[in-house]
Structures are given as C-alpha cells and as structure tokens.
Specification:
Blueprint (H helix, E strand, L loop, with lengths): L9 H9 L1 H12 L2 E4 L6 E4 L2 H9 L6 H4 L4 H4 L9 H11 L5 H19 L6 E4 H18 L1 H4 L2 H12 L6 H8 L4 H27 L16 H7 L10 H32 L3 H13 L6 H4 L3 H13 L6 E4 L4 E3 L2 E3 L4 E4 L1 H4 L45 H18 E5 L4 E3 L5 E3 L3 E6 L2
Parallel strand pairs: 2-7
Antiparallel strand pairs: 1-2, 3-11, 4-7, 5-6, 8-11, 9-10
Helix pairs in contact: 1-2, 7-8, 7-19, 8-14, 10-12, 12-14, 14-17, 14-19
C-alpha cells in the first residue's frame, strides 16, 4: 500500500523558494528521504540520499529527459544530449565522446594553462578583482578554443554575452521557470533570440570547415582543425555510417559550450574560495605544486602527480557541487520507498544534499581535502550514488574529465603565479548551477 507523501507547509515552501540550499537540508532533516514541494502541476517529489540516486540512475526508462529539462530548451536546443532519451541519446553521445578522449585532454591542458597565464598577466598587482568573473572569461575561452578552434574563440566575448542572456532565466526560482515555459514571455523570447545569434556563428564555422575539407591546419593549439572537438564531430559516423546533421551539430556545440563554462566557472569560484578560506590549504597545495612541478610545463600527465591538488578539487566539488538538483519527470507510474510516483510527476534528486549528509560524509560541512586520502578518519570511498557532482548513470556529464582537468589546471596556474587574499563574503546563488553570489572578491598580487 502506497504511503502518503509528506509535504512542506506553505511557509516552508516560500522559504524553500527563497533559499533552496537551506530549504532542501531542512526538508531532509524534517521529513526524511521523500518529501513533496510545491503545488499542482509544479509539485515536485524530492528524493534524497544514495538509495534515491541509485534508483534514478539505474532506471532511466522511468523518466523523460526532454520533459525534465524543458526549462533549458531555449538555451541548449532540441537535440542536445541533456534533453534527449533512448536511442537518439545513445547515438549522439557515441558520436560526441571522442572529443573528450583522454589523449585529447592532454592537449587541452596545455592550452588551458596558457590561457590562464595570459589572463593573470593582465591583472594589476595589489588590486581587488572578482576572481569568479575573471576566471569565467578564461574558462569560456578554454572551452570554445579547445573544443572548437581559434576562429570561434575570437568571438568568445560575443558568444558569452549572448549565451548569458539565455542563461539569465535559470536564476529564477524553479517554480517560476516551470511556469514561464508554458506561456509566451519576454525572458524566453530574449533567450531564444540570443541563442539564434550564437547559432548563426556556429553554423558559419561549420560551413567554413566543410568548405575547407578535413584536416585543414590551424586550430589554435589543438593540432589540425580536423583533430579538435568540432573536427571530430564533423567526422564522426555511427554504425550505419550516418553523421550528425547541421541542427544536431549546432545543438551539441552550444550545449557543450554552456556546460563547459557555466558549471565549471561556478565550481572554479568555489574551489578557490574554499582553498583560501580554509587555513593551510592554499599553502599546502602550493608546496606540492612547487616541489613536484617546479617551472616545468604543465601537462595532462603532470596532473596525475599532484594528489593534494586533486583532493582540493574533489572536496570543492563535494561541498559545492555546481549542479544542486537533478530534475526528472516520470514517464510512467512507479514506486520508491513506499511512495507512488505518478506519470507526469516531477521528481528531483540532489547532489548537494547527498554530499552534506553526515551518515554519508563525516563532518560534511567541513572543507577537508585530507578526507580523500584512504588513511584519514573522515575518508569514505566515493561511489556513483554518494559522490555525483556531474550527475550519474547514462546521462552523466560527458565533459566531466574535461572539467576536472580544467579545474586542476587553473588552480595550479593560480598557485604558481599569484598571491590571493579573500576580500569579502561569498554566498551561493542559482539552483541550476550553484555559483558564488556577487562573485569571489580577492586582492591579487602576482608571484615572482
């Protein structure tokens, strides 16, 4: 017999909308692993914890991904990996995967390090800057240049400005976003117009590549154009010899740019903030970089020889996962933990809550890079259901190796080249990609 799902009171729903981070933790403490939030068609069943995560990841056929991420359609496009299901998703994922092969990441690391160093050289020593915004620009350029070559990277700022217009709607409370998807509204219209402008630039680059043919030289540091991400997407064929169509290419390029800098820049901001805010962490990470790398060029192989830097990044992703909730829409009736979830009902799991459960992670609110060392008392082996900063299952973020390498690379270059001091408070904002509200203010001095 199905149990009645507990629900938040109207006052708690309002608090939840205003501060979903505190709201989700309070809901979990008060009601356990299943709780209903909201009303009517916008009511969402939040299911918390490793058991819920495992259930959702193991049963993709129970959910519709397109319906789950309909609020992102104006930004990502209809054929993006995030919003497709079944065979279409499998085919597009298979064709996109080569751009993120390990050997490609090694080439990307050099480009990322070079772009970071160039940005640091423009920072005036002794001045206060918003490090989050400064690195956001670097990360966007890294993503565009590494995956799609120097020609598109020259339009990095235009692409970023237009996509930011499209992304602004995701800062609204989730209930408001869902409401706006069903009616014509100025915000969605602006988002679609801005995306069309980016799409036109992407299609122009696709046309230029096709006109020049495969293997043309000059990809801005990632070998020949045929060897970068866009070249691989153009050359990819499935088992029946079919390639990605123009609309599919456009949607994959734009969605990967968005994913490549929106969530990664948020994670980068939190990583630097946590490392500076926690006594000893920045100094310990710098000592490791200096002793292991010295003045040597940073490579993908070198990243593997910096376990403490890796632990700092993993701990930042645990405490501040860039994606706070992973929404789903039930494609059919099913039961979980004694509760019936009806077809069409919205459901959400939360990396943020899972990563802050004391029964899963000891001292969960403490930033402890040491917990990633097996001998530490707070160490727990990470599993797909207990550590999910990039989602999980068949739709786990395809760019997670790229993002992790970029976080480490930028952190290493900052450790090598700067002295940073926090210059203000930092609080979270946005449930879609949890970024630092009002940025990460620091006073920067270049290291000699």
């Amino acid at each position: 017999m199905s149990r009645t799902m507990p629900s938040l009171s109207p006052r708690r729903v309002l608090q939840f909308a205003l501060d979903p981070f505190t709201g989700m933790m309070d809901a979990y403490r008060a009601h356990g692993s299943v709780v209903g939030v909201g009303y009517g068609s916008q009511r969402t069943a939040f299911v918390f914890g490793p058991e819920a995560n495992s259930f959702v990841f193991a049963n993709p056929s129970l959910f519709s991904w397109r319906d789950s991420f309909e609020v992102m359609l104006p930004v990502l496009g209809d054929t993006a990996l995030l919003v497709t299901d079944g065979p279409d998703h499998q085919r597009r994922r298979h064709l996109t995967l080569p751009a993120f092969h390990r050997r490609r990441i090694d080439a990307y690391v050099r480009l990322m390090a070079r772009n970071t160093a160039a940005a640091v050289e423009t920072w005036e020593s002794g001045r206060r800057i918003d490090l989050y915004q400064a690195l956001r620009s670097v990360i966007r350029r890294n993503t565009v240049e590494a995956l799609y070559g120097a020609p598109l990277a020259t339009d990095n700022h235009m692409i970023g400005a237009r996509l930011q217009i499209a992304l602004n709607s995701t800062d609204l409370p989730l209930g408001m976003q869902l409401f706006l998807t069903g009616i014509p509204n100025p915000m969605t219209a602006r988002a679609r117009k801005a995306r069309r402008q980016v799409a036109a630039r992407v299609q122009a680059e696709i046309g230029r590549r096709r006109a020049r043919g495969p293997g043309a030289a000059g990809a801005g540091g990632c070998e020949a154009e045929g060897g970068d991400g866009l070249g691989m997407l153009l050359a990819a064929r499935d088992s029946e010899g079919r390639s990605l169509g123009d609309r599919e290419l456009e949607d994959q390029v734009i969605s990967l740019i968005v994913a490549g800098y929106e969530t990664t820049s948020a994670a980068m901001g939190w990583t630097v903030h946590a490392a500076l805010h926690t006594p000893g962490v920045w100094d310990d990470a710098r000592k490791e970089v200096d002793s292991v790398l010295g003045d040597a060029e940073l490579t993908g192989e070198a990243l593997e020889r910096l376990p403490y830097v890796d632990a700092v990044v993993q701990e930042a992703l645990r405490l501040h996962p860039p994606v706070v909730v992973l929404p789903r829409v039930a494609a059919q009736d099913f039961e979980f933990a004694g509760h019936t979830i009806r077809a069409g009902r919205r459901l959400a799991i939360s990396p943020y809550v899972t990563h802050r459960m004391p029964e899963v992670w000891p001292q969960p609110t403490e930033f402890l890079p040491e917990r990633w060392s097996p001998g530490h008392p707070a160490h727990r082996p990470a599993t797909p259901s207990t550590f999910l900063p990039f989602g999980g299952g068949a739709h786990r973020c395809i760019g997670s190796p790229f993002a992790t390498a970029e976080l480490k690379t930028i952190l290493i270059e900052l450790l090598r080249r700067t002295e940073l001091r926090l210059a203000g408070e930092v609080t979270p904002a946005s449930i879609m990609a949890m970024r630092p509200r009002r940025g990460v203010p620091v006073v920067v001095r270049r290291r000699t």
